[in-house]
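Figure S4 source data
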Amino acid sequence: GIALRADMDAIPVQDMKDVSYKSKINGVMHACGHDAHTAIQIGSALILKNIESELNGKVRFIFQPAEETDGGAKDMIEYGALKDVQAVIALHVDENLNTGTIGFRKGVVNAASNPFKIEVKGKSAHGAHPENSIDAIYIAAKIIDSLQMLVSRELSPLDSAAISVGKINGGTAENIICGEVTMEGILRSFGAANRQRFQDRIKTIVESTASMFRGLGKVDFVDGYPSFENDDDLYDFAYKVF
C-alpha cells in the first residue's frame, strides 16, 4: 500500500492575521502551513473513501506530530506507521507558487537539519580588572564570526548550506566580565558527507577558538532529520498523473 502524510504541529508564534482561519490559541499558530496540510489530507481521505471500491490497494493516512522538532517521524515509524507501506506521498505549501499550481522536483528537496548548542566557559571578573578574566562573550563573538566563514570559504558556490546562531545567553551585570555563554543554532546541509564535514568543522572552531583565548568550548548536536530526497520512479509516476 501507499501512505499519504501530513504534518500537523504548530509553533510558538503569535498569529497576527485578521482572517477567518486565524489561530484560536494565543501565542501559537500554524506559521508553516501545517493547518493547510492537515486540511488537504482530510479532504483527500474523504474523496478516496467515497471511491474506495475502485481502489486497487490500500491507502494509509499519516498525521505526523512534532515535525518542527526531531522526533515525530522517528516515533511514528517505531510504532509501525510505515508497516506494509511501499511508498509515501506528501506535499508542502509554497508561497512562491500561484494558487492551483503544483511544483515537482527530482532528487534532494530539503536540507538536513542539525540543531546545536554551544557552551563557552571563561572566567568572570570585575570590569575594572580585565586581566583577571577570561571573557566568554568575546570568545563567543569570535566563534560566531568564524562559523560564518565556513559556508563562504569552505563550500563550493554550486553547493548549499546554512549555519545560523539564533540564540545567545551570557552575562550577569554591565560591569562584570562574563564567565559563561551558551548559544543555540542550527546547521542545514545537503548530503551526508557535507553534514558530517560541517559538524566536524564547527566542533573544531568552537574548541580551538575557545582554547586560543584561554577558555573552554563545547558543542553538542541534535541528530535531526537527514536530507529529504524524492524517489526518481515515484516522482516520474506522480508527475505523469498530475
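Figure S5 source data
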Amino acid sequence: MTDSPTTHRFYGELAVWWPLISPPEEYEEEAAFAATVLRSASIPVSEVLELGSGGGHNAVHLKSDFALTLTDLSEEMLEVSRQLNPECDHHRGDMRTVRLGRSFDAVFVHDAVDYMTSEEDLRRAVETAFVHCHPGGVAVFVPDETRETFEPSSDHGGNDGADGRGVRYLSWTWDPDAGDTWILTEYAFLLRGTDGSMRVVHETHRLGLFGREDWLRLLADAGFEARAVTEVTSEDRTPRQFFVGHRTT
C-alpha cells in the first residue's frame, strides 16, 4: 500500500497515547456486535485471529468470549496491546503477507483494513484471512467507510489520564479524487505531558475506499461465500458495513 501505517508517528512514537486518543471503552458496543457476527460461522468459534489489532482495544472486549491471536504491523502498538491483553498471543506482521502456519475458527479485521488503498492490497489482505480460516469458519472485515455511504466529515475528541497527561485531537476526512480508491484524513493532536508541556503533531493518512460490490467480489474471488451485514449501533453515525466471508472448503 502506498501509505504504510509504519510511516505514521500515530502508530510509532505516539502509540503510548492511543488509550487516551481512542479509549477501550469506546469499542464495547461494536465489539459485541462483531462477536455475534463471528459466531455466524458454521463451526463453533473459539479461536480467533485479528489482523491489524492495533492497541488491542477490540481484544479487551472479545477476549472473554474467544482465545485471541493478535497481529499488527506496529511493534509499538503491539506493546500497548500487551499491557492491556497479556493473556493474548501477539505477533508482528503485515496483513497482506503474514503467515502464521496455522488456521483459526474465525478471522477478524477491524478498521486497520482501511490502510489497504489499492484493490491489490485489499485482495492480498482477504487472501491472508482465507488461508488462516478453518473450513466452516468465517472472516469478518469492518472498514470505516464504503464508497456508497462516504461523506466528508470532521471529528474531535480526546481524554485526560490519571498521570496528568492529556490529548485533544481534530480529524478531517475528505476525498481529493472520487475516481480513485483512497481518501485522506488529516489529524491534528495536542499532547500535554505530565509536566504540563504541550506538543502539536499533524499527520496525513491515506485510507482506502471501496464499494460494496468490490468487497463482495474480492471475498468471493478468494474462495469465501460473501455477504454484507449492516451494523446495529446506538452511536450517532452511519452504521458500518460488516463484510463477512464464510469458508466452505
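The chain is about 20% helix and 30% strand. The domain at 5-144+209-247 is CATH 3.40.50.150 (Rossmann fold).
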